[in-house]
Amino acid sequence: MIAFVRGQVAEVGLTSAVLEVGGVGLELMCNPGTLAGLRAGQTAHLPTSMVVREDSLTLFGFADADEKQVFELVQTASGVGPKLAQAMLAVLAPDDLRRAVSTEDVKTLTRVPGIGQKGAQRIILELKDRLGGPTGVRPALAPAPAEAWREQVHQGLVGLGWPARDADGAVDAVAPDAGPTPDVAALLRAALRTLSRA
C-alpha cells in the first residue's frame, strides 16, 4: 500500500493532481477542497488510499490523514464505493460527516449526490459505531486565487453528477460569499446546498 505521496505538484486538473515522485508522475484523484490547496511547482505531501479493482489501480489523495481515514471507513458501509465516498467528503468535512451520522441526520447525508433517504439510513445504521463523534479538527487549506475558485467549484459539481447548467447557476448563487480569499471547499458545500434546495 502507498500510505502517502510527497513530491512536486506537476499538474492540477479538474478531478486529480499529478505529483512527481522520483521522476515518476503519480496521478491522485482528489476532491475539490484538496485540489484547491495545491499549486503547480510547489511541494505537496498528501496521505493516500489505493483502491484496487480487477481492471484498475486508483490512488486517492487527501488534505490530511483524518480525511483519508473517513474515506476508508465510509466504504465499509454496503453500497458505498470510492466515488461515493469521495462525493461525501466533497460535500461534508470529516467532522460534519461524523456529526450527521452520530446524530442520525438523514437530511444532511441526502445532500450528497447519489445518497437517497434509504441509503442515508443504511449508512447511519452501519457506520454509527465505527465513525465516532466529531474531533473538532478542520484541515487548513491554502486559499484559491481570485477567480480560479469558480472553475474548481463548477468542475467539482459536474464531477459529482450535476448538469453543467445547474452547476453554473449554483456557482453564481455562491459568488457573493467568495470574498477576497475564497475557500473552495466551503463554496462547493454552499453550492451543493443551493442545488439540494432547488
UniProtKB/TrEMBL annotation:
GO MF assignments: DNA helicase activity; hydrolase activity
Specify where the region named Domain III lies, as residue ranges.
145-198
Q: Which SMART domains match?
A: HhH1
Q: InterPro entries recorded for this chain?
A: DNA_helicase_Holl-junc_RuvA_I (IPR013849), Hlx-hairpin-Hlx_DNA-bd_motif (IPR003583), NA-bd_OB-fold (IPR012340), RuvA (IPR000085), RuvA_2-like (IPR010994), RuvA_C (IPR011114), RuvA_C_sf (IPR036267)
| Keyword terms of this UniProt record | ATP-binding, Cytoplasm, DNA damage, DNA recombination, DNA repair, DNA-binding, Helicase, Hydrolase, Nucleotide-binding
Q: Which residues cross the membrane?
A: none
Q: Which Pfam families match?
A: HHH_5, RuvA_C, RuvA_N
Which CDD domains does this UniProt record tie to the protein? UBA_RuvA_C
| Chief location category | cytoplasm
Residue ranges annotated for the Helix-hairpin-helix DNA-binding motif class domain, each copy included: 72-91, 107-126
Q: Where in the cell is it found?
A: Cytoplasm
What role does this protein play? The RuvA-RuvB-RuvC complex processes Holliday junction (HJ) DNA during genetic recombination and DNA repair, while the RuvA-RuvB complex plays an important role in the rescue of blocked DNA replication forks via replication fork reversal (RFR). RuvA specifically binds to HJ cruciform DNA, conferring on it an open structure. The RuvB hexamer acts as an ATP-dependent pump, pulling dsDNA into and through the RuvAB complex. HJ branch migration allows RuvC to scan DNA until it finds its consensus sequence, where it cleaves and resolves the cruciform DNA.
Q: Could you tell me which HAMAP family the record lists for this protein?
A: DNA_HJ_migration_RuvA
- Domain remarks in the Swiss-Prot or TrEMBL record: Has three domains with a flexible linker between the domains II and III and assumes an 'L' shape. Domain III is highly mobile and contacts RuvB.
Regarding protein family, the annotation reads:
Belongs to the RuvA family.
**UniProt subunit comment:** Homotetramer. Forms an RuvA(8)-RuvB(12)-Holliday junction (HJ) complex. HJ DNA is sandwiched between 2 RuvA tetramers; dsDNA enters through RuvA and exits via RuvB. An RuvB hexamer assembles on each DNA strand where it exits the tetramer. Each RuvB hexamer is contacted by two RuvA subunits (via domain III) on 2 adjacent RuvB subunits; this complex drives branch migration. In the full resolvosome a probable DNA-RuvA(4)-RuvB(12)-RuvC(2) complex forms which resolves the HJ.
Q: Which NCBIfam families match?
A: ruvA (TIGR00084)
This one is known as: Holliday junction branch migration complex subunit RuvA
What is the native source organism of this protein? Nocardioides aquaticus
